[in-house]
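Name: DUF4376 domain-containing protein
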Amino acid sequence: MPINKTMTAPNGAAVTYHKPGSAEVNYQQGVAVVRVLSWANQASHDAAAGNNPVWSWPITIAIADVANVELAITTSGIFAGGSIVADLSGGLPARRARHWAFIKQQREAREYAGFTWDGSTFDSDPDSRARITGAVIEAQALGPEFTRTWRLADNTLRVLDAKDMLEVGRALGAHVGRVFDIGNALYQQIQASDDPESITWPASVETQLSEA
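Structure predicted for DUF4376 domain-containing protein:
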């Protein structure tokens, strides 16, 4: 969603209207670099259909904050104190599409934020998911002979046997399934709403996901 804050870009232009754009994620470092695009005001943004920003700022945030990037970048740094506002530019179909894109970013952030099995939290970024899938296949093939020392999300180690590994794989699948089920339900709500920006990721689900 847009952020309102009056400031001066490095090229000397006065800007007041800002929107997070693309993000580059570095899972090893646990950060994402978000490109925040700026225009003189909302009118100039709308006139250019969201193109031709006056400036693009690279803002580094924690991966965990990608689910709510606007809040993260207005809490500290150069955009601190900015006001988060709904993007009402364009017609209702454009607003629905734009908000669904925003919800999908939140869905991905939660999908990759990790999951808990038997009291241990496992990473669920793409590389970790590939490793879990490979280990599950190996556990299925080796059976009782399988054992693996797994590094958890908090960098502690846990020894897993074949049964454990299969259950971790099932827990990962359940985690991803829950996130996508919520996303699909939100999509339906957005498409039926005349106020799509009011549709948000349910806060009560955060606890359910973290404790699953």
